[in-house]
Specification:
mainly alpha
Length: 132
Amino acid sequence: MNFFEILEQYLNPAFWVVSNILLMYLSTALVAYVLVYGIRFRWREYEGGKRIFEFTLSLVGIVALVFIGVFVNSPQGWYIYPEDVLIWRPILRLVIFYTVALTLTRLNVILWRRLLAGRPLDLSVPPRTKGP
């Protein structure tokens, strides 16, 4: 048995299921981010805040389409690896979904820390610079 047979027979089905679980998580994290950012922070006051909010809303639409395709409209179920998928696709899905989930986790942590500390997210403050 060569590497590609092992990949296709054993690893890709596991990558597929883990990716779908990550999709559930990142969908939840994205909705939480949009709700907290949209309701509790002053994003309307600054151009940057408006663009960030617009971007996250468009990302909600993209993630919703993928979510529907995997969990609602899937002919075989979200936990079954489809036979007609190219060999490289499951690992790419895993890497992309992991990266998005990690990014959304970091964004949510920042928002919740500011929310719990009672500090609004002020986008007019210049970014920190590294230096001596």
